[in-house]
Design a protein that fits this description.
Strand order of the largest sheet: 2-3-4-1-5
Number of helices: 17
Order of helices and strands: HHHHHHHEHEHHEHEHHEHEHHHE
Distance between the termini: 63 Å
Largest sheet: 5 strands, parallel
Oligomer: single chain
Structural class: alpha/beta
Length: about 375
């Protein structure tokens, strides 16, 4: 607060900055945070401001990061930016969904949801009876199968067809919902719900809320508040819970009241070797890399072997991302030793850049 008051004084802001800081400290106001960040940016970027103004602005910025944590501030900025700047049409968003590699069952299910919800909205506008089904969804499957990506798209689509007022995306985990002492968990959940209203609240590994089973009173407190919010704000809030299939099934079996608030369950299958290849090819193309034919063959064999030996922790898209990062780094180590490399050498990933050694004759 003291530093905010100093910035107020050196910028002649007439108390506005101090007021914003107070709103942040007292209410954790997201809008006040955005406004203060804009003031800080204005102070730092304007060449007419003196060095003292810039220095105080940077101190206030550091204080904000210390208060929230860097990742939280990033999330606040990102959610506001997405809500303000996403001008894509419904057709654009459906195209984005359809452009995702694989996930055919998921795409079909989401398309059905869109059609159903659009018709129910039309029926309400004509004073016809419409089902009171909730919009909340449960996504199940292994990691790296696109659950978070699809959840973001669903939020934007629901905004575009008039089911959500904002369509923004708030992602949380157990840590964001459960406090360290009795009575505070409900307050944390209410704060998260308030941030998510009008958009999508995405809870990954939702079963971790009750990971200590019946002994976890904090988890029960969280679920009580969350279940209430699912009903109270069903008109302008979509909650999407996600995680591994079996733990999610047990999570819902142990809490019938929670399960009754979810109408739609979507299973995300693991990717096939061909789909993993397409994801890698897309990542390469988007970053101006190509795989030569020998490298492609090696990659295909690698993905086939990984899938044949997969377990419940199979990483899917994350496996592709890790391989891509290794390929690019090995390519850089090789090409740096070439005198005056041309565009082809700077962009072509070869067999020798492949980072793993494995038995290509093994029975898959």
């Amino acid at each position: 607060m003291n530093n905010a008051s100093k910035l107020d004084a050196v910028m002649d802001a007439c108390g506005e900055i101090t007021k914003l800081a107070a709103m942040i400290v007292e209410d954790n106001s997201k809008l006040a945070t955005i406004a203060l960040l804009r003031k800080i940016s204005e102070a730092v970027d304007d060449p007419e401001h003196e060095i003292e103004v810039k220095r105080v602005a940077q101190v206030v910025n550091s204080g904000l990061i210390e208060f929230y944590g860097y990742s939280t501030i990033q999330g606040i900025c990102k959610s506001i930016e997405e809500t303000e700047e996403d001008t894509r049409t419904l057709h654009d968003l459906i195209d984005e969904l359809n452009a995702l590699v694989g996930l055919e069952k998921v795409k079909n299910k989401v398309q059905d949801l869109i059609v159903y919800q659009k018709i129910q909205k039309m029926r309400r506008e004509k004073n016809l009876h419409s089902a009171k089904n909730t919009l909340h969804l449960a996504f199940t499957g292994n990691p790296g199968t696109g659950k978070t990506t699809v959840a973001r798209i669903v939020g934007r689509i629901y905004k575009r067809i008039g089911l959500l007022s904002k369509g923004h995306f708030v992602e949380v985990s157990r840590t964001d919902l459960i406090a360290g002492y009795q009575g505070q968990t409900a307050l944390k959940v209410k704060k998260v719900i308030e941030q998510a209203k009008g958009g999508v609240l995405f809870i990954d590994e939702a079963y971790s809320i009750t990971e200590n089973d019946h002994a976890d009173s904090y988890g029960r407190e969280c679920l009580t508040e969350l279940t209430k919010a699912l009903e109270d704000y069903r008109e302008d809030l979509v909650v999407i819970v996600a995680g591994y299939t079996e733990p999610m099934n047990k999570f819902f079996e142990s809490n019938p009241g929670l399960r009754s608030r979810f109408n739609t369950f979507i299973e995300f299958d693991d990717y096939s070797p061909d789909e993993l290849e397409k994801i890698l090819a897309s990542m390469c193309m988007n970053n101006d890399y190509i795989l030569d034919e020998e490298a492609k063959e090696k990659v295909h064999l690698y993905f086939e072997q990984q899938i044949s030996t997969r377990d419940e922790n199979f990483a899917n898209g994350r496996l592709v991302r890790n391989l891509y990062d290794d390929l690019v780094m090995n390519h850089a180590r090789r090409v740096i030793n070439i005198a005056n490399p041309g565009s082809a050498e700077l962009s072509t990933i070869k067999l020798e850049d492949f980072p793993f050694v494995f038995d290509e004759t093994a029975d898959s």
